[in-house]
Each structure stands twice: as structure tokens, then as C-alpha cells.
Q: What sequence folds into this?
């Protein structure tokens, strides 16, 4: 093919656009970078229609079937991260579009953020900051995490890094996964338990599983009620894994000590979202991998995936069945 065109349709807030590594893409393709979000589905389609390759740097921009159907030229989607729930994989596969993600490169960076959320919630740092700004000098009790139990849901790269970091501050560790790996548990020194047992045992539950039909609303009213009184919920995976209405109720009732959230059911988070009225939360705007090192690693991962695709050797393909289809002209 002639020099391919990569379109980055909504790099807002800046992700790949904030990385000097993006210029390396020019060695293999041209690119168009949009630094704002499309105002409508029509504008989104218009931006991507010329593209041979889509680099979706922000997972909050979705590509459902009806949009993909308007993109007959598209041959590849490079997802800038691990999660690919924003892409209709079935439709992409039907159209012969290869979808690739970037697994593992920022696992420690995201786990550090999750650890930071956990520590900030346990010591009530957001609440105390707000109190100091209001002129109040208070001594509200926090929680000591050493000796307490962390339960990790999802033992991929990030979940395993979170388990390792938690052990470093003296926490006991258990985990649950849709795909348990006993060899990994033995190597890293954690124990797999039943899902309900994890909820009933852990002092902190940290979510690190991808969003899928099996994990959508995985944590709802019943699961929150099962969690230990005065426990903590951490979510750096996807907002839709948690029922936010039930979470707000559990926070406001005092059943949960608090929550640390980097992801939400609606992004950007609406200014009137009920979570913003909870005093026992620490919230960040889906930025767990947003350090310069993180941005660079994600950008290089996307460029590497695009290069391998153009070489006819696609890697990190999340819809591998597409590779069995006849090559598109």
C-alpha cells in the first residue's frame, strides 16, 4: 500500500500528543492528530474516514458497530492501553479490522497509582485537605494498612504488580480471577480464593480486571454488602465494573470506609455526579498511567504494533480470528 495514514481522533486530555515519541510514527506512516473530542458521531466519522489505521488514544471515545460500518477504509485499530472495550470487536472482525492493544508496558505505573489511591483513602488525605482549606484542624482516624488483607480482582500484569506493592508495605494478599494461574500465585506468593470469600475477607478490594460482559457491574449492591464493614474499594480498571449508585449508597451509609477511583461510569465525570458529594472518596480523572514515562511507553507500544501490522506480522491482536480472513486489498 502507499504510505498509510494514521488518525488519532480525540487526544484529549493529551496522551500520545504529549509524548515526543509520537514523531517516531513518521518513519512508517503519516498521521493526523486531533487534540479535542469530536462534537458528534458525524464529526467522529468524518475525522476517521480517511484513515488506514486508527490510533484510539482515549478509551472514552467509543467505536460501536454503526460507526465502524462507516469506515470501509479502516484496516487496523491501535488501542493505546490494555482495555479495548470501546471497540465493537465483532463488527471490527467482520470488517477485517485488526485490533491491537498494549499490554504490560505501564503495569507498574498503574499499580503505583492504585497503591497511592489506597494509601490516600486509608489516611483520609482528600478529606483532611478539604478540612484544612476550610480552616479546620482535625484529627480524624485513618486506617493502618500493614497487617490488613488486600484482595485483588484480576491477576494480569497490573493486578500482580499491585499484589507485589501491597506485600512491600506489609499487607496479606489474596486474589480472584476469571482465569486463575496457580503457577503465577506460587511464584508471586499470593493465594487464589473464591470470589465471595475475597469480598468477605479483604480489608481492601482492588479491581484490575478488564471490562467484558462477564465483569460488567461485577460489583453491585449485593457484592458491596458482602464487603467487610469499614473496608476500601479501589478501581483503576473500568468504571462500568462497579454499580456507581450502589457504591454511593455504601459510602454514604458508612458501610465502606472509602473508595479510590480513577475510572467512572461516565467520562469525563459530570459535575453533578453523586460521587463528587461523598467525603470519603479520592478521585482522579482516568490518569493512572499518565506520567511522562507512562505516556512514552504507551505511545511506543502503539507505534510498535502499527509497525508490526504494516510488516505483515501483527502482534498483541485481541481479535485473532480476523487473521484467518483473506487479506484486504
A:
Amino acid at each position: 500500500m502507499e504510505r498509510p495514514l494514521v488518525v488519532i481522533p480525540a487526544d484529549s486530555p493529551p496522551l500520545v500528543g504529549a509524548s515526543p515519541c509520537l514523531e517516531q510514527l513518521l518513519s512508517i506512516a503519516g498521521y493526523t492528530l486531533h487534540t479535542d473530542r469530536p462534537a458528534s458521531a458525524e464529526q467522529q466519522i468524518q475525522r476517521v474516514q480517511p484513515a488506514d489505521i486508527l490510533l484510539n488514544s482515549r478509551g472514552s471515545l467509543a467505536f460501536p458497530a454503526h460507526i465502524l460500518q462507516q469506515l470501509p477504509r479502516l484496516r487496523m485499530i491501535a488501542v493505546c492501553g490494555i482495555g479495548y472495550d470501546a471497540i465493537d470487536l465483532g463488527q471490527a472482525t467482520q470488517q477485517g479490522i485488526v485490533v491491537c492493544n498494549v499490554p504490560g508496558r505501564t503495569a507498574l505505573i498503574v499499580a503505583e497509582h492504585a497503591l497511592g489511591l489506597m494509601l490516600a483513602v486509608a489516611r483520609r488525605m482528600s478529606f483532611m485537605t478539604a478540612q484544612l482549606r476550610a480552616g479546620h484542624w482535625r484529627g480524624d482516624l485513618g486506617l493502618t494498612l500493614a497487617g490488613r488483607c488486600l484482595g485483588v480482582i484480576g491477576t494480569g500484569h497490573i493486578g500482580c504488580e499491585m499484589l507485589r506493592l501491597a506485600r512491600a508495605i506489609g499487607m496479606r494478599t489474596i486474589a480472584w480471577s476469571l482465569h486463575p494461574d496457580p503457577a503465577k500465585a506460587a511464584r508471586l506468593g499470593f493465594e487464589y480464593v473464591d470470589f465471595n470469600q475475597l469480598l468477605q475477607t479483604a480489608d481492601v478490594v482492588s479491581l484490575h480486571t478488564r471490562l467484558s460482559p462477564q465483569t460488567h457491574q461485577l460489583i453491585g449492591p449485593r457484592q458491596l454488602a458482602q464487603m467487610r464493614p469499614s473496608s476500601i474499594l479501589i478501581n483503576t480498571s473500568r468504571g462500568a465494573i462497579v454499580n456507581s449508585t450502589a457504591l454511593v449508597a455504601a459510602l454514604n451509609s458508612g458501610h465502606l470506609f472509602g473508595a479510590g477511583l480513577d475510572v467512572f461510569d461516565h467520562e469525563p465525570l459530570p459535575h453533578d455526579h453523586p460521587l463528587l458529594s461523598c467525603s470519603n472518596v479520592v478521585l482522579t480523572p482516568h490518569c493512572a498511567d499518565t506520567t511522562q514515562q507512562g505516556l512514552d511507553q504507551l505511545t511506543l507500544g502503539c507505534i510498535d504494533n502499527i509497525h508490526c501490522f504494516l510488516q505483515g506480522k501483527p502482534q498483541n491482536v485481541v481479535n485473532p480470528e480476523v487473521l484467518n480472513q483473506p487479506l484486504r486489498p
